[in-house]
Amino acid sequence: MSLPVLYSFRRCPYAMRARMAIILSGEQVELRDILLRDKPQEMLTASPKGTVPVLVLQDGTVIDESLDIMRWALGKNDPHNLLEHLDASLTLIATNDGPFKKALDRYKYPSRYPDEPPHNWQTEGLRFIEELAARLDSQPYLLGPEPRLADYAIFPFIRQFRMPDEAWFDALPHPALHKWLGTLTNSPPFTTAMAKIPTWQSGTPGPLWP
Ligand SMILES: N[C@@H](CCC(=O)N[C@@H](CS)C(=O)NCC(=O)O)C(=O)O
């Protein structure tokens, strides 16, 4: 039986959220782990914009935005009610994917933006971190007692924001935020989503996954 094909890159936070939604929905896909510096022609033919993740359904439908892949998977089956409080999730995700991702990219890779005036992107990103921390001070997850779409869609990016200066991040006075990040980073959906698989070779079948 043929399955939907997911083109993915292990370390991409957008691909991470798509993989976790597939795991949490109980769906199965053929997983094709690619290299961003050597994108397979099959993926570019399906989605010429050349970003991961890309999901190609059996009927040829292409879904090439991570949030749409999450909503496709959870729309089929959502045993953990991740789509509850969807509007609130989407509002937080929009800030994550917009201004916060802009700050994250510039904080992580300042040399990629030589023509932009200097700016403290760490401070800029911290504004969103503090918005999340304020929510987590009163509840274990962003929208209440259980994780929702927003938690899974956002935490891979917060994890990346920690990486350039872990000591600085870990010293932030937001214990509930640190706990939230640790819990989700150690959760089975994430550890399963991050398991290494061999890079997909064009013309061969990828593994059935997860
Ligand atoms: N809005 C897209 C963004 C996806 C995206 O930008 N993915 C990055 C990797 S994390 C990518 O594929 N970049 C293309 C490249 O680096 O060549 C989504 O949500 O799926």
Describe the protein in words.
With 210 residues, this protein is an alpha+beta fold. It has 2 domains: 5-80 and 191-209, Glutaredoxin (3-Layer(aba) Sandwich); 86-187, Up-down Bundle (Glutathione S-transferase Yfyf (Class Pi), Chain A, domain 2), CATH 1.20.1050. Helix content is 50%, strand content 8%. The chain has helices spanning 13-25, 41-46, 66-76, 86-108, 121-136, 149-162, 166-170, 175-185, 188-193; strands spanning 5-8, 29-33, 54-56, 62-63, 208-209. α4 (86-108) runs antiparallel to α5. Residues 12-14, 36, 50-53, 65-67 line the site of glutathione. Glutathione (GSH) binds at residues 12-14, 36, 50-53, 65-67.
Shape: globular
Q: Just name the CATH architecture of the largest domain.
A: Up-down Bundle
The overall pLDDT average reads 97
What order do the helices and strands follow?
A: EHEHEEHHHHHHHE
What's the story with the biggest beta sheet?
Answer: 5 strands, mixed
Provide the gyration radius in Å.
Answer: 17 Å
Percent range for helical residues? 40-55%
Number of discrete domains: 2
CATH class of the largest domain: Mainly Alpha
Strand adjacency order, main sheet: 4-3-1-2-5
How many angstroms does the end-to-end distance come to?
16 Å
